[in-house]
Structures are given as structure tokens and as C-alpha cells.
Amino acid sequence: xxxxxxxxxxxxxxxxxETLFGGRLLAWIDEEAVIYxxxxxxxxHVVTKYVxxxxxxxxxxxxxxxxxxxxxIEFGRTSLTMRCEVRNKLTREPILxxxxxxxxxxxxxxKPAAHGKTExxxxxxxxxx
Length: 129
Fold this sequence. Notes:
The longest helix is centred in the first third of the chain and has 20 residues, at 22-41. This protein is of the alpha+beta class. The protein starts with a strand and ends with a helix.
């Protein structure tokens, strides 16, 4: 799993318990995952279709640095399925896991469209072609 994005938990990210608000974390995950999907599918018209059970393991506090990990696990005809882990950057303690996030590739008409991808590719490799 690749951990690319790091977030610093700030006062505006906290809930009344003074821990990271779950909704804020889910927004960060959705943004990270859709960016990953856009890059993999080479199409900016991608939408979130499904998110499986979310397992909150621990609660980050103000000042913690967390990192989001995304991994592609399946390429469908019009979709890309990923899994996600969030952990504390310094301690590596797990914070959250999601087994399945499904994103759908859309065509010009806004309907699901085949993307033709079957495996993870990297931008640097595409530039060399």
C-alpha cells in the first residue's frame, strides 16, 4: 500500500471530544481516492459509487500527523475498486480501514463508460511511451 497524502490534525478538524471529526477524515479519504482513480483511469469524470464498512480503530488528536494509504485491488469494466488504510505517521498506529471504495468512470454523457484499464500504471511510465 502506498501512503502519499499526509494531514496535520488542526483545531478546526476536531469534534467535541477533541479528537479528529470522522466526517473530516472521510472527506480527506474520498478526495485522495478520487484523485487516485482519476490518475489511474486517465479521466477527470469519476464518481464515488460505493464505500464499504468503515472501521474506526483509534482517534487522532490535535497535532497528530496522519497518512492516507490507497491501493487498487480490482479493475472492473467501468469501475476501479480500492482499499484504504489511515495511520499515524510517527507511531504507525492504525486509525481507520476501509476494505472497499468503488469509483465509476463516466463518459461525456455522464453515464458509466468502459475505461479499458486492467492494472495499476504510473504517470512516469505513460510519459515515456
